[in-house]
Write a sequence for this structure.
């Protein structure tokens, strides 16, 4: 049963520190999404890639967030410097060009103190 | 861009009763409407979806209806059980031959099924 994996599952860090979250999409999926979930804003898109090329990153604060896909098996989301308002659950999802469904990873729960 | 409104934000029903959650969307180009169930601390999981060429879809106790003209879609859960208690999200998206585009989510409905 193929699944999207994310690391770390939990991260507690101090304000100003760099945070890197990693996602391994399902093998063969060509589209990877990063979503952020907070109580106030709900689930919102940060960025997504198709065939490793960024398609939309308009949901990300550009000054501190960056997303990359160095290869087809790894997507990264980096926050530098982190701030308390970045505390949230960050989900990665992947999708195949043959299917409608997006498959979500387990999420990274980030707490910035 | 797309905007999805979801109602109600909370819903309590007695076990065995039905639950209905409603969503509206703004972008007439959207052609894919999934519903996700999220249990506390878990990932969103797809429970049912509908495409814009279909008006209704059923899967056991769950059904979804879509009205493209009015741009709204609904989730119906019959014979609710305590394990149906969770947060439910509707979403709208565009799918093309190249693949999926981003999901725009509603704010979620917290469903509580009272035994």
């Amino acid at each position: 049963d193929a699944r999207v994996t994310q690391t770390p599952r939990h991260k507690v860090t101090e304000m100003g520190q760099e945070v890197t979250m990693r996602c391994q999409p399902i093998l063969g999926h060509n589209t990877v999404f990063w979503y952020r979930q907070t109580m106030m804003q709900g689930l919102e898109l940060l960025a997504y890639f198709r065939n490793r090329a960024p398609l939309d990153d308009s949901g990300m604060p550009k000054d501190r967030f960056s997303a990359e896909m160095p290869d087809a098996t790894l997507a990264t989301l980096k926050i530098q410097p982190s701030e308390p308002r970045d505390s949230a659950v960050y989900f990665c999802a992947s999708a195949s060009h043959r299917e409608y469904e997006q498959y979500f990873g387990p999420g990274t729960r980030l707490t910035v103190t | 861009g797309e905007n999805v409104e979801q109602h109600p934000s909370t819903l309590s029903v007695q076990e065995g009763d039905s639950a209905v959650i409603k969503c509206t969307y703004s972008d007439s180009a959207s052609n894919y409407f999934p519903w996700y169930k999220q249990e506390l601390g878990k990932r969103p999981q797809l429970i049912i979806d509908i495409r814009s060429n279909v008006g209704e879809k059923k899967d056991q106790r769950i059904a979804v209806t879509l009205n493209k003209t009015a741009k709204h879609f609904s989730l119906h859960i019959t014979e609710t059980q305590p394990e149906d208690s969770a947060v439910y999200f509707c979403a709208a998206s565009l799918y093309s031959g190249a693949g999926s585009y981003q999901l725009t989510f509603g704010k979620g409905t917290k469903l509580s099924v009272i035994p």
